[in-house]
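Notes from the pairing session

We agreed to fold both candidates in a single pass and log them together. This is the raw record for the first candidate, unedited. Please don't reformat it; downstream parsing expects exactly this layout.

Candidate A
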Amino acid sequence: MAGNVADNVTDMYASLRSNVSMLGQILGDTMRTHLGDSFLEKVEQIRKLAKDSRRGDEAAREQMLELLTALPDEELVPFAKAFNQFLNLANLSEQFHTISRNCDELVCVPDPVEQLLGRMLNGRIDQTKMLDCLKTLDIDLVLTAHPTEISRRTLIQKYAAIVDCLAEQENNQLSDRERRQINLRLRQLIAQIWHTNEIRRERPTPVDEARWGLSTIEESLWHAVPDFLRQLNDQVQDRTGQQLPIDIAPVRFSSWMGGDRDGNPFVTAKVTQEVLDRNRHAAARLFLKDIVLLVGELSMEEANSELMAFTNNSCEPYRFVLRSLRQKLRDTIDYLNARIEGHNPEVDKSTLIWQESDLKAPLEMLYKSLCDCGMRLIANGLLLDILRRLACFGIHMLRLDIRQDAGRHCDVLAELTRYLGMGDFNHWDETEKQAFLLRELSNRRPLIPSNWQPSADVAEVLNTCRLIAKHPAKALGSYVISMASKPSDVLTVLLLLKETGCTHPMRVVPLFETLSDLNNAAECITALLDIDWYRGYTKGMQEVMIGYSDSAKDAGVMAAAWAQYRAQEQLVAVCKQAGVKLTLFHGRGGSIGRGGGPAHKAILSQPPGSVDGRIRVTEQGEMIRFKFGLPKLAVQSLALYTSAVLEATLLPPPEPKQEWRNCMERIAEESVSAYRGIVREEPDFVPYFRAATPEVELGKLPLGSRPAKRRVDGGIESLRAIPWIFAWSQNRLMLPAWLGAGEALQAACQRGEMGLLQDMEREWPFFSTRISMLEMVYAKAEPNLARYYETCLVPTNLHHLGETLRQRLDLGIKVVLELTKSDTLMAHTPWNRESVKLRNPYIDPLNFLQTELLARTRKETTEAPASEHVQLALMLTIAGVAAGMRNTG
């Protein structure tokens, strides 16, 4: 069987490699045209030597290193660019292959909704129960702008155009002339990419990030959402004979772009206002395009009595309504343009699309009329697509979350209580804080004096709250409190919202993100729900955010994963006891060290009862492009999320056995000890980390709008989780994603628990997912490359730590292979394994060059700074390695 799988993988890659080879050849021709044959020959020579080096040829490795170190300054940038762009084109080919007509069954995602409906309706779940669950699903995907998306938006658009060309080429009916035209277009696009600067010259602003998020919706999700719902409806109808409601929206979208102010001084109330206006503007513009098309389609005269009465018996009643909507949308766009330009125009709200009902009600009237008059086929065309887009995106496009650190809210009240002569809020204990907050929440008189002049930081928090008060609830999502730990953290925000005039009950969501906060999460929520005033405010709904990034950085992935699991279990129990519906918000990243990995598996590995038809999940950085950047990929991703949440709700995983829990407790305890023993207690760790990775240089790369550190003068503890993981992925050690896990699993084996671990891996989705994720990062880790970074960049007196880390890595790999009874990592996922192998010969030269450039820049002095060529080439190697590793942050 294993041989057959291997043969299938080879056949599968024969199809994929033709596209990789074709795009690579066009890239080579582009380089030859502009840099000559000798440069291209050198690139090819280094690529071949890298492949030979991979096979253990030491002579090839030495020859490659000699060529790399001898590159003249003027060749550094084009060389880094060549390998960088080949990796991007390989990524593109692979991404396209999963949606290609020639996609192999080992690669293609089988239709997850079709599979799930088949399983559920095969006697396991009552049909009515399944349909009821489907109709009430509430999946909220929250787009965030964490700085891991290396590629510029202009390049992303060109990559999407290349995918369109690859899709066109699959048409067997193309003439020779048509094939030549497609090939010409591919050569033009790759030439455009080659001559475009890959590195942003300036760091993006929060508004830039928000516009990038909107572009993903406009170019992909706007088309994918109605396509997905039509496919879902067809499958449900085929199996049950029923249709889904026209306003069904199992998946909706929110955003942190322009609302996440935690540690980002550039996200102000003014910025958030502009982003909210731009979100509405984008929605109005896209709906206008749809309505213009619909005016052309709905030319029929026959209508029901309601529509005829509404249009005063117009001869074209559908167009009568649509022309009115068209004008309102145009006026709405003009109004929002003025606001974005900084004006505050007076307006008659009745002339604009001001509320969702202004658009929804007339469109539903048209839909009903068409159905009443026997034209359901027409109604279920573009008109139904528009109604479903409206149900998903609303007129605000994305619901904007607000996020702020708990300490900033406390500082507002501390400054206010000092001004009022009441003492210092920050010096009160939790009981005193709660008593004060509840008293003021119930008090009808204002707490904030009209003549009070707060400090700039305090004024900014209050301005944000006033902004929330001015906007409708549907424009906003949740108010997320980072580093929350106590009930007063939630009550403080509620008081600030009350005092600034917010009348709609905004969801205020504590984010528990350190190990201790996760362990105390249930206690905090229990205390909150025991408060009568708060219970009344929640109206039976409680949202809690679980932090993956900072908990993993605090305790290591294995201990953090177990703490997240237990916190969810306890929160489910607490909310069930209180009769409150819990929504868990998972703050996952793209990398394994930040809770990343396949979303379908991750959802199915959650504790039973923790999903229950509702979930919020962050989608960040480059993962937004990988999952939603192309309409067909986006349809797959929407289907995967829907099927996973349905399955987790209706067919939840089993309760873990007590012996599994006991074993996991021991593993968590030992893993956090091993992790912190290195990261916190090893005195040489920080200097080794700074020397062996490009952590310092990453801070200079203009990626996201947010600073890399919470505090400029802080150490590892103040470094954000993203650059922490990004840095270790660059030197290929991948340390945050595995440190502590192997040691704990080995200790379990030494206790004679290997059989127990294998039972857990086979029968417990939570544990099997953790092992699968470990396999992936172990496969991506390259200890020999990490050793090379160490040799070139790290002082000799610190080398002992590198040796220790590589021994720990080797230990983890061996124990996982023993646990899975495999000879190779990722043996059960050959596509993923081969995908890693495909990239390595192209990433390796970038890594070797990066070490050379890091050494040069670190030797620079004021008198002899590194040349511009060296600095730009270094940034390109970082971008290239990130492209090759894919889930970097």
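Candidate B (folded immediately after A)
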Amino acid sequence: MKFQKLLVTVITLFSVSLFSQTTNIYRAEKDKVHNLIHTKLKVDFNFQEKEMNGEEWVTLKPHFYETDKVTLDAKAMVIHKVTMNNQPLNYNYDDYELIIDLPRKYKRNEEFTLYIKYTARPERVKQKGSAAITSAKGLYFINPTGLDKNKPTQIWTQGETEASSCWFPTIDAPNQKTSQEIYMTVPQKYVTLSNGKLEKQTTNADGTRTDYWNFTQKHAPYLFFMGVGEYEVIKDKYKDVPVEYYVEKEYAPYAKDIFGNTPEMLAFFSKITGIEYPWNKYSQIVGRDYVSGAMENTTAVIHGERAYQTPGQLVDENVQENTIAHEAFHHWFGDLVTAESWSNLTVNESFANYSEYLWLAHKYGKDEADAHLLEDVEAYKQGQNYDKHLVRFNYADKEDMFDAVSYNKGGAILHMLRNYLGDEAFYTALNTYLTDNKYGTGEAHQLRLAFEKVTGKDLNWFFNQWYFNSGHPKLNISYDYNKLRKTVTVNIIQSQINEFKFPFAIDVFEGSKRIRHNVFVEGRDASFTFPFTKHPDLIQVNADGVLLCDISENKVLSDYIHQLKYAENYMHKREALLEVAKHQDDKKAFNAIANAMSDDFYKIRILALENINLINKYSKQNVIDKIMKIANTDSKTLVQAAAIETLGKLTDPKLKAVFEKGLESKSYSVLGKSLVGMYYVDKQLAIEKSKTLPSEVKKIIATPLTRIYLEENDDEELAFIASNVMSGMFLSQNKKTQALYKKAFDKISKSDNSEAIENLSDDIVAKGLQYKQYSFDKVGVNLLRQMAQLQKSNNPSSKENNLRIIQIAMAKLLE
């Protein structure tokens, strides 16, 4: 599963939790009393009541010991009857578990099939889910009665972690594997999607159609999927494997622009694992109001609405591409070999997270991948994650495992392991792990054993400190120079509680010449001495950017200027640029930032443009001319947009032509920045342009429009602004954007604009329900739950008063 990335503010906002994320209870793998063998379902849907009528034939056998009872997970259902061979069976049902008396004792090699007729009632499910404040009801009806004319009618399922048992009785645990058949009866106008192959479609006399989906391989119950809706199905393929994209008609022309790299991803992942894509198809569907980022249901991946993008967005970047790669790699790590328990979630999610790095490096180069890794590592560090083990057997709730440790830190740990062992050994070990455990389950120890089997190395030390312990090295670095001997000694002191050992790369720079020294740190205090020809201009530790650590060292401005110019790793260039930018009253510093605007990597160019100070004595016309050229000609539209934003700060009428050209750009980022730039040189033109934009474009460039409308005190646009406040404050990673929407929130909350207040409250509820948040503690969860309840309340008091109460609750969140 892939969750949307979080704004640091969200994590720190709720940093003081009243509830611990750990417990003394040992969270074991679920006992295997019975093994699932096969699951056959026949279902149809009651759209009005948001219920599903189901028949199930489930085949099981005892795992080892003989048994005369079967316990199935079945949440909030009505059980109509249970039979075996047409003979009724006695059972007990408590809304959570269905305990069935078998007619006799069955031994471990004896299979038997139960028939269960039932009604699934997902709206009555009472269990916390991965979406933080919603119940994990497994089966979701979206606009089932069609009353909302702005939203299609859809049905989709979400099984992880243990919510498939909300729509069919099963043993809902990741250490179970079963094949499946599903007969789905739906109105003719809908298409369906499920796991495996669509074998047959039968038209019924009542105007419905029954689709028969057959999945002959075995996978975990949480990976079962059903999707229903009015979709266009765009066909693609990988070798002889059908690849499909289920999208709403509006986005059909752009489906291949959004998802079209999928076949190449399947080829790449097949190559590096040495295991050809192991399933019979690969379909992706976009679900409205989906509760997370995406989910790796075997052969039937679902994505949230964020996947929908138009050419004006895609020309800048495909924001869903990492998620598409993430879910694809899950088809090896998670679907083919599944974590045996949620405690070992790392063998699913850490690999899916790291696949994003691997894909980016393969497709776009190392800089792009390193920048993504740095963002992930920073997100891990900024949460309450330092004391959490990667493998955790004492979590308070299984949903707590879906955090920046299992994902971000786990991916960074795999990157360190790959660096330590080398690519050939790393990928060979992945193949060994997947081959030895295919269609089964795995845990961290099996992963370690696969790496040891391939490399011949003992890796207990690595797994003990990174998988079964917490934290990361916090390093104090100092340097001793011996001018007579022409040596430099690098001193490394670990200040954290847990002692780590690790490989460490150190670069010694003499001018542009770089000498790499690879050392291995053992012990809390380590020193390494290296020769030099002339006094080094820079010593760069963790030079390859691989080690997950915090570093404290004393560097001066000249060090950072040299680092910005010559360092190879994105992390070090970024660090240097941000430090140099603080000293632009120094001419060398200013010139260093100006030069960085020509860096080969576009994210460094953007960072330089965002941080250059044009209001100082060294800001000459040639630098401004350079920025104008970048605004007009850079190969990356995001860089053009950054250049236009920088020029906009000058409020110089001479730049009007640059903004006018930007207003005609195909790129929405360029268009948005140009509107703001134009606003400060020709208000009337900018406002007139903003008013003529199509509503779908206005929604996409909401942030620059919000800046203009707030500056203009345009109360007519408050309702528009209100619909984007939550995204701006909580989902943006830009501090200026956060501050802008906080200002918007304050303005709306003090206004008497009932439409704006209603839109704001709708946005609060929608975003609260839609986005999983890594460190979202129980206080914030409860307040958002109260907001949702108030919004849906039938209390006779006026809706406006309810909305005001929601405002107060939101204000408490922002304190």
